[in-house]
Amino acid sequence: MTTLALTGSPLWYASRAGGTLALVLLTATVVLGIASGGRAAPRRTGRFGIGLLHRDLSLLTLVFLVVHVVTAVLDPFARLGWAVSVVPFGASYRPLWLGLGTAALDLLLAVLLTSALRLRLGVRRWKAVHRLAYAAWPLALFHGVGSGTDTRLPLQLWLYAGCLAAVVAAVWWRLAKAGPGRVAARLLAATAATAVPVVLGAFLAAGPLQPGWAQSAAAAALPLGGGR
Amino acid sequence: MNRTRHLRVDRISCTGQGLCAELLPELIDLDEWGYPVLKDRTVPGHLRAHARRAVAACPRLALRTDRDRP
């Protein structure tokens, strides 16, 4: 365990802890969703229990996301402003890496809203939006790795590795159990499950683990002009 | 207010995940491929909450309750 000097306000610590917990919970939700969505049924427990756990974990994720966002906005150091919590890539503080988190939050809010209304929307529209969660998870991961103050801590790196391994394992498990058909979807899932770890590893080696990352993270903005 | 409700299975959407029979075994059986067979379409008053839960649990939204039509 690395010892840290306590610098910064308690809000900043709460925000980091909330964000990390939200990532872990989101990972658990995604893993359950991937693993239970296929044809394989659990042997010792009911399927409805898995479904309820998936729902409850997702709601808990949102609770910690709210803590993460509110404490980050209230923190006097970064001076983010409330617009940052919904409008991605507009922050003055690490615009690109913070924007990924905002984009993930927006996607998860869309998933929440459509899930609440799914009986009215119908399965097709609900499912189409629900798949956005698959995009939200890597966005959240790269947000954590890119903007995270704690990325260099060995424990935090192990945590990211664990989250990644869990989701990749769930994808491969589902692919192994999947039947024929839907070749394009299965190829896409396999490609994504291979690409995300590779890109993350390369990104970590090139970016956050190099000295001077804080400066380049602060400067990184989208070419279309986020940040100030 | 207190109209009876009837279960309906959308056979095209249903993929036989079987959550409905786990939650509402009083009214739903599974056939040998895991697809639901309704024992009784009418939902009695004391099972209404269970029926609602089963409808909410269906991952394909293939189980519904109708209010009026028999």
TrEMBL record, chain A:
Keywords: Membrane, Transmembrane, Transmembrane helix. The chain crosses the membrane at residues 12-36, 57-77, 97-116, 128-145, 157-175, 187-206. It is found in: Membrane. The keyword Repeat does not apply. It comes from the Bacteria. Residues 19-140 form the Ferric oxidoreductase domain. The keyword Membrane applies. It is a multi-pass membrane protein. One of its GO terms (cellular component) is membrane. This is Ferric reductase.
Automatic annotation (TrEMBL), chain B:
InterPro entries: Fe-S_cluster_ET. This is Ferredoxin. PANTHER family: FERREDOXIN (PTHR36923:SF3). It comes from the Bacteria. One of its GO terms (molecular function) is metal ion binding. Its cofactor is [3Fe-4S] cluster. It holds the Pfam family Fer4_15. Keywords: 3Fe-4S, Electron transport, Iron, Iron-sulfur, Metal-binding, Transport.
